[in-house]
Amino acid sequence: MVPEFEPARLDDLDQLLRLYRRVYGATYALPLGTDPEVMAKEIGNPTTTWLVAREHGKIVASIMGTVEPADRMGKLQGLVVDPEHRGGGIAHHAVGRLADVMLADGDVDSVYGTARTTATAPQRICLRNGFHALGIFPNLRKAERHETMALLARYRDGVLENRHPVHKAPASLGPLLRTVHETVGLPEFPELVPETETTSAESSGPIELIDAPQFVLRHFESTMIDPVRRFYPLHKPNVLLAAAGGEYQVYAHLSRKDGYCTLIGATPSPHDVAPHLDKLIDELNGFGAFYIETLVPLYSFHELSTFLGHGFLPVAMYPGMRRDGDAWHDYVVMARTMQPLDFRGLQIDAAFRPFAEQYIDLWTQKFLNTNGVFR
Asked: What does the domain layout of the chain look like in residue ranges?
């Protein structure tokens, strides 16, 4: 019989620390398993749901989720199961129970999570709990090896059925859109139109990197007043990239350790940055980012075309991501990797195979010539 899950308590901290240490060993460095002060704050945080399962008073499993109230989205994370209690369905029960709790009161529209692709079990646990496969993040660089992550989400009733239709989309998005249409449907399949041509401005000098996370976040929140332009629930900015000539500023989340960067927002507007994207990408590569991604509304034809024109490819789509009135908007994750594809050891459930195939096809068309040589 699978133990029931209940909210974690402050007096569970010692047991939780021992559980994380038993599962991950002394090398585990994330604060949500090693820092009791951080863990205590999360247990008492109203935007965090932390559940534990006990057997004879001992915690044998833990899972948590966090919510961004303004975005109406929850994030599934932190699942850990005692090795002696694996194989009995406890991980499956944990994921389902957490999603049920987070979606129950109607304040959260969707709960998303990422799953590693070194094994299919985490993906299937989510899929069997009502999560939808939404795409992959290919070639994410973790330490000295490549790793691909899978994106999944589960929705509150009525969200997927009430989304804003999009009437046209760049033709390169066709395979991704057809995959999404087969899994969760689209309000209207858009007309696929060749993307508009992009132009690049002449190089305009160096780009300055302001690496002061708290300052950057405050600056972002005070500058990006428009809720649509500041919408980016997957990451928070920790660096500011500023053109030396003052033409534009770009807010981003940069992880030199993992070699990736997420472009979050820009001033005066994304259109002002578009002609300088090649320069920005070169500079980010110099700052240690080998994988760059960004989130674009499906309705933004020009912005999608711009990123496609600068080597970005669609890797995932998040239907119903942002609420607007009584309906929801779909978003596309666009990514560019500066290294050849490396899918060694990739293990994905069949639900993710179309996402991987469409990405590989587009990547090949974009970066290889007919002789198989890099362009």
From this structure: 5-155, 168-362
CA 290, CA 259: separation in Å to the nearest integer? 5
pLDDT tens, 189-216? 999 999 887 777 766 678 899 999 999 9
Please determine whether the domains at 5-155 and 168-362 fall in the same fold group of CATH.
yes
- CB crowding 8-43: b at 16 or more within 10 Å, else e: beeebeebbeebbeeeeeeeeeeebbeeeeebeebb
Q: 352 near 150, Cβ under 8 Å?
A: yes
CATH class of segment(s) 168-362: alpha beta
Residue 66 and residue 308: Cα distance in Å, rounded?
A: 32
Q: What is the mean pLDDT of residues 125-135?
A: 97
Rounded Cα–Cα distance for residues 120 and 347 (Å): 6
Facing residues of 207 across strands?
243
Spatial CB neighbours of 88, under 8 Å, sequence gap ≥ 6: 2
Asked if 53 contacts 95 with a C-beta cutoff of 8 angstroms, the reply is no
Letter for the amino acid at 82? D
CA distance 332 to 35: 35
> What letter does residue 351 receive in the DSSP assignment?
G
Cα dihedral sign for 276, 279, 282, 286? negative
Enter the CATH code of domain 5-155: 3.40.630.30
Rounded to whole angstroms, the Cα distance separating 87 from 14 reads 25
224: CB partners within 8 A, 6+ apart: 230, 251, 265, 267
Q: Are strands 48-55 and 5-7 parallel, antiparallel or unpaired?
A: antiparallel
- Containing 59, the helix (H) or strand (E) segment is strand 58-68
Return the closest-CA partner of residue 312 out of 302, 320, 324, 304: 304
Among 290, 283, 278, CA closest to 206? 283
For residue range 48-103, list pLDDT tens digits in order.
999 999 998 999 999 999 998 989 999 998 899 999 888 889 999 999 999 999 99
**Could you tell me the pTM of the whole model?**
0.93
